[in-house]
Amino acid sequence: MENVVIIGTGCAGWTAAIYTGRANLSPLVLSGTQLGGQLTTTTEVENFPGFPEGVMGPELMGRMQQQAEKFGARVEYKKVVEIAKNDDGTFTIKTDSDELQSKTVIIATGAAPRYLGLENEMELVGHGVTSCATCDGAFYRDVPVAVVGGGDSACEEANFLTRFASRVYLIHRRDELRASKIMADRVLANEKVEPVWDSAITEYLTDEAGEVRAATLKNLKSGDESELEVKCVFVAIGHVPNSQFVGDLVDLDEGGYILQNAHSTGTKTPGVFAAGDVADHVYRQAITAAGQGCAAALEAERYLADSE
Ligand code: NAP
Known about the structure:
FAD/NAD(P)-binding domain, 308 residues, elongated, 19 strands, binds NADP nicotinamide-adenine-dinucleotide phosphate, seven-stranded mixed sheet, alpha/beta, five-stranded parallel sheet
């Protein structure tokens, strides 16, 4: 029987592991499909306190893992498919390869990229449609590409892609970016970035090899349609929380985010805590996820002490 199983290895998961590790609870951390979470698909993180020069996302996550393991956290590379409550108040966690028992569970599974929902979109992922500029940007040297979205992620991806692409079209459904001012100013000042306002992609067009060669654009104000020649579309329109496996142990809001109790990371089931982007649709920052991971660890520790 584990004291605490932490599901997820992003900022929330590793921080919960550092704190429960230091509390001698020997946490078991289940990695899911993406060890290190969303920051492993980003480049430089400029706003994580303590790094005035910035830090690369994968490096930050690697260092968090090292810190958690130093305090006795164990990591297993498994994906959780279901959690159920046992009669004695403990939990059975079913993974893709086995079953575990734990007294508490911290859900820190984060969120996954949202796509546009167009026909053939998912088949084209890896063939000219992607959500990760850091992963795929270097494949598109000296060719035009597009980024869809108007938030910080879209701006960050567009700026990053100017290192490789000949031109980066930033396609946004409105005529004003949602991104923070510093990110918006930076991207709009970049000569290689061309904003395409009030527009949406309605279709991906492919060549004989099945790779994206262009996209059909619709101007949402005039209704006019046009063809934009791009070799890759980077979709950066937000995320969907990874909460599909939680069953009825926790309540979800209409967007699928886990509902926490007031002023707590606890959920409707005592012993089940939620932290980070899987429960936060407001802040969604690395540092706020880390803060919630810390809070969840402290609450799990108290819950265990109270139940003994
Ligand atoms: P976001 O802020 O939610 O922005 C999503 C963007 O996609 C919005 O511009 C939205 O348009 C657009 N969008 C949503 N659904 C769409 C659809 N179906 N079709 C076309 N466009 C659509 O998401 P994000 O940029 O991923 O950022 C998430 C959080 O992470 C934010 O809190 C952000 O500040 C943070 N972040 C921070 C940094 C940084 O500080 N370095 C970097 C990346 C992300 P509307 O504007 O019209 O709604």
